[in-house]
Amino acid sequence: MKPAAGDRPDPRTESGRTRYRVLLGVSGGIAAYKACDVLRRLTENGHDVRVIPTESALKFVGAATWAALSGQPATADVFDDVHEVPHVALGQTADLVLVVPATADLMARAATGRADDLLTSTLLTARCPVMYAPAMHTEMWENPATTANVATLRSRGAVVLEPAAGRLTGADSGKGRLPEPGAIAAAALDVLQRGTGQPDLSGRHVVVSAGGTREPIDPVRFIGNRSSGRQGYALAQAAVTRGARVTLLSANVVLDDVAGAEIVRVGTAAELREATLKMSADADAVVAAAAVADFRPRAVSDAKIKKTAGTDDAPVIELERTDDILAELTRRRSRPEQIIVGFAAETGDAGGAVLDYGRAKLESKGCDLLVVNEVGLDRGFESDQNQAFILGRDGTSTEVPFGPKSALAHVVLDHIAARLKP
Question: 77: closest CA among 58, 98, 99, 96?
């Protein structure tokens, strides 16, 4: 009989800091060496990680390496320490099972319920979220058998990240490359902090815009804003770990890619408009978190504008309005049930408070939800923290207290998930 969820050991240490128990499965692919970096990132975040390699994985990275990096034994054999019943006990007490890399063979065995080594046995007994980071050649990833196995795993609640596209083994290139270790670790930490891997957005397509547009003045200068893209990237990360197919429209962002998301890079408001309208055609939800320039120079100089020596003259730059992407998106939404979310970074002034401006913008834009946040020195732009009100077209208002942008991202997605039709 399996222990009740409440009987599992408390992952919190005496200091009150959450120390999660992670099982890092490693299957037999050339990308196994990258799992060492994922392991390092998780342990440096203070978590307890035990590595469970397959026999094939040990041909790429030896057990001594895993034991040294994790501080725990690493074995593929169910008969090692058999008195502790590791093939059952490990999965029962873990907070997350993360497989890096997940080969086509490993996912096939997991999908069919095989239990012929310690890793697959653990996957069968795991009562916690399970995440796979696939890596294989393009032909193997696109094979109908792999496609079916991935769909099976996702239907059972597992998070299967989309592999990246790029250089594979040898001279081959294509989709199937393991996502970057930092991005995999970020996805794992997002699941751990949320406390569940329930993929309530499985089968959904979510488009997220992030960052700030730049409108060129000349080849050197531009009109821009202080948006770092952190909130949009947190939204994309959260949507991936909740099972969605995610398209991330990234405007001038210098952040690690989100594992499992399709990245579309844009620069100007016009480029963002074009990409948003194109990518949202089949989207179930569009989250417009990017900070779009309201104005751009009417004319762009082909050469750098020079200062004139001996004079205080300054150039006069005539501006014109950019397109209102959010308002156009709501007017042209591809179908009535599509959920559209806007963001409004506001400051109060003599004309009204932040929420006053937010409610007026919700009415004028026509979106379903508007996330209103007051920007300042310690929140909003260029910060890892945020607080906001989520205003609904149905009259609802939800206050999200000051905290990590990842927390706000999940509250936004909770609202989206609740509004999506089956």
Answer: 58
Paired tokens of 186: 């970020």
Query: Taking 70 as the threshold, does the pLDDT of residue 84 lie above it?
Result: no
Helix (H) or strand (E) holding 345: strand 339-346
CB 47 within 8 A of CB 192: yes
Q: Please say whether the beta carbons of 163 and 136 come within 8 A.
A: yes
CA–CA distance, 320 with 296 (Å, rounded to integer): 6
pLDDT value for 16: 54
- Answer yes or no: is 361 a known binding residue: yes
- The pLDDT value recorded for residue 197 is 66
Report the distance separating Cα 40 and Cα 299, nearest Å: 50
Query: Is 365 annotated in some ligand binding site?
Result: yes
Consult the annotation and say whether 421 binds a ligand. no
Tokens of 398: 């939800």
Distance separating alpha carbons of residues 342 and 365, to the nearest angstrom: 8
pLDDT reported for residue 6: 43
Q: Which domains does the chain have, with CATH numbers?
A: 19-194 (3.40.50.1950), 205-419 (3.40.50.10300)
Could you identify the residue written with the tokens 């569009």? 286
Burial of 171 per CB tally in 10 Å (0-12, 13-18, 19+): exposed
CB 370 within 8 A of CB 345: no
Q: Are strands 222-223 and 159-160 parallel, antiparallel or unpaired?
A: unpaired
Residues in the chain: 422
Convert the pLDDT of each residue in 142-156 to its tens digit: 999 999 999 999 999
CB 386 within 8 A of CB 233: no
| E strand or H helix that includes residue 223 | strand 222-223
105 known member of a binding site: no
What is the dihedral angle through the alpha carbons of 293, 297, 303, 308, rounded to the nearest 10 degrees? -110
Q: At what angle do helices 104-111 and 118-125 cross, to 10 degrees?
A: 50
Among 206-215, 313-322, 371-380, the minimum mean pLDDT is found in: 371-380
Q: What is the mean pLDDT of residues 284-306?
A: 94
pLDDT for res 226: 87
Q: Which residues are catalytic?
A: 225
